[in-house]
Amino acid sequence: MKSLSQSFNLEPQTFALCVPIGPQTQDALPALLDQAAAAKPDLIEWRRDALGLLPDKAQGACLDLMAEKHIPILYTFRDFSEGGACSEADSDFREKAILQAIDHPAVAYVDIEASQSEKMIKTVRKAVRRQDKQLILSYHNFKKALKPKAFKQKLYDIAEKNPDVIKIAMQAESKDDILQSSYGILRFIKKSHWQKPIIFIMMGTCGRLLRIAPEYFGGSLTYAALSESAATAPGQLSPDQIRRFRKELYL
């Protein structure tokens, strides 16, 4: 099976579209996968945590099915404390599942929390680099946006862990949150000479402009929900909505 890791590369400050899916049963996967592929995204994110303590063989079967769509997979097995859906999956279980996924040709990107242990990050980073794939280190704050000084420190702390992509997702309560955080991202890019992609998301209604045109705020990838009930974060739009708004704005 040919690896899909080279079929798409996320570029700095360049728009790309990802559709997340999080089936809660294996039987639900084919239909969701068909819907996601029909939206013609650059990546499909598999929220692996939604399927809980799935055995290795079953995870492999799911990835085999995904490979048939020829759209690279962004694999995410999020910690329960970071918004994941499976409280029973400890770090050892998740690490084993992540390493198995990295070996699969359907997977091009792996997203883990920057708050994970240095040992886990180092292990996953080594496996990703060995397979010529990409590591996303992410920070999520579903309650609020960090203040400028703390936000700056967070960006530098993640960058020091040497990911291929930094992901920041914070709740936006006002336009000031958007302006301050966007300025922080752009200043970080300039001052640190960061030349890799950043996924920059401000969750909630206030942050929808960033979901439509992330590249204008220092970001790259945007996530689009197949339906309102399928949204994996507050404020997600559908692929059709994002494309329509971008067309109307001549983006």
Helix content: 25-40%
Q: How many strands, what sense, and barrel or not for the largest sheet?
A: 8 strands, parallel
The order of strands across the largest sheet is 7-6-5-4-3-2-1-8
CATH topology: TIM Barrel
The count of domains is: 1
Strand residue percentage? 15-25%
Question: Could you say what the CATH architecture is?
Answer: Alpha-Beta Barrel
Give the topology string: H per helix, E per strand.
Answer: EHEHEHEHEHEHEHEH
Distance between the termini: 36 Å
Choose one word for the global shape.
globular
Query: How would you classify the quaternary structure?
Result: single chain
Q: CATH top level?
A: Alpha Beta
Task: Describe the model.
This protein is of the alpha/beta class and 251 residues long. It has one domain: Aldolase class I (TIM Barrel, Alpha-Beta Barrel). The protein has eight helices and eight strands; from the N terminus they run βαβαβαβαβαβαβαβα. The longest helix is centred in the last third of the chain and has 18 residues, at 175-192. The relative contact order is 0.15.
